[in-house]
Design a protein that fits this description.
This protein is mostly beta strands and 300 residues long. Strands 1, 2, 3, 4, 5 and 6 form a six-stranded antiparallel sheet that branches. Strands 10-11-12-14-13 form a five-stranded mixed barrel. It is 12% helix and 38% strand. A hairpin with a 2-residue loop joins strand 13 and strand 14.
Length: 300
């Protein structure tokens, strides 16, 4: 089986495929607004695209890729082979990007993709399967601008035994590292802490190792008042997930301090949540040793 999988290594997945749109300022603006990135390099007549948008210019959108876009059937054939071997589930694991030159509004994007590697069968907590790495070389007006490596795991889900004593699953735990430890320490003390750059005083959330406005690595914190409004929201109906009971509202809350946080809305039915609705911070204990910041709204 592995010999059949390895035969896909080096096969092109796309050759001289063209991005659906040239690099353009509206997409750059939407990206920066979503990321909260206010760097001046991404605005004005000499604007460049944020480097991390590299893959965005190759994506097909909701309507999918066109048949004449230079793409091959290699991925479909590989995935069909893995599906047939029982590896019917997929999860993205990581990506690596290398930037060689900035992308600017008006640049025409073309790209070549190749299936770079297929790993031997690996056993993970999710199940057993194979890691598939695809490398995409992205060009602007024919000049190599960057390389994007994207890795997925195609796997057969592991059989899971049901808990004997506590049938109710626990909420997933956040990954806590040196960059966000202080935030979760604050949550345990019922304080919602926002990072503040000590060089330019810009507030930022979520927590980052450096300022996205002036690039200073130095910061302190301010405590949020807890007041906010619903900036945007979605109602989750599917897929069902252990420890969650859909439908429920997930909102992007704009705090009074100006930064935004994603959280749940409590206190009102999910179908009454609206943009602009005022909300107030509270802390929800979801089990014996885990609390989360959520936001309570009033039906009035």
């Amino acid at each position: 089986m592995y010999d059949r999988l390895r035969a896909f290594e080096g096969r092109p997945a796309a050759t001289a495929a063209q991005g659906r749109d040239p690099v353009n300022q509206p997409m750059i603006r939407h990206w920066c607004e979503a990321m909260g990135d206010t760097n001046a390099a991404y605005t004005g007549p000499d604007a460049v695209a944020p480097p991390t948008m590299l893959q965005a210019w190759t994506m097909a959108g909701l309507s999918g890729h066109s048949d004449d876009g230079g793409r091959s059937s290699a991925h479909d054939e590989l995935f069909a082979l893995l599906d047939g071997a029982g590896c019917t589930s997929v999860v993205a694991t990581d990506c690596e990007q290398e930037y060689l030159r900035p992308l600017r509004p008006g640049d025409t994007v073309t790209f070549d993709s190749v299936i770079e590697s297929v790993s031997p069968r690996k056993t993970t907590k999710l199940g057993t399967g194979h890691f598939v790495t695809t490398r995409t070389d992205i060009r602007a007006n024919g000049e190599l601008a960057g390389t994007h490596r994207f890795r997925i795991l195609k796997y057969a889900p592991a059989a899971r035994s049901k808990p004997q004593e506590d049938p109710k699953p626990r909420r997933p735990r956040p990954v806590i590292n040196r960059d966000n430890q202080g935030f979760w320490d604050g949550v345990r003390r019922h304080r919602l802490l926002i990072q503040r750059c000590t060089a330019c005083t810009t507030l930022r959330f979520p927590w980052l190792p450096g300022c996205n406005h002036c690039a200073s690595p130095d910061w302190d914190t301010v405590e949020a008042s807890g007041a906010g409004t619903v900036f945007s929201y979605v109602v989750m109906h599917h897929p069902p997930f252990p420890a969650f009971d859909p439908p429920y509202a997930v909102a992007l809350v704009e705090l009074a301090e100006g930064v935004r946080i994603i959280s749940n809305i409590t206190g009102v039915p999910y179908d009454t949540v609206r943009i602009g609705m005022p909300v107030q911070l509270e802390f929800l204990r979801v089990d014996d040793d885990f609390e989360l910041p959520v936001f309570r709204a009033s039906e009035a």
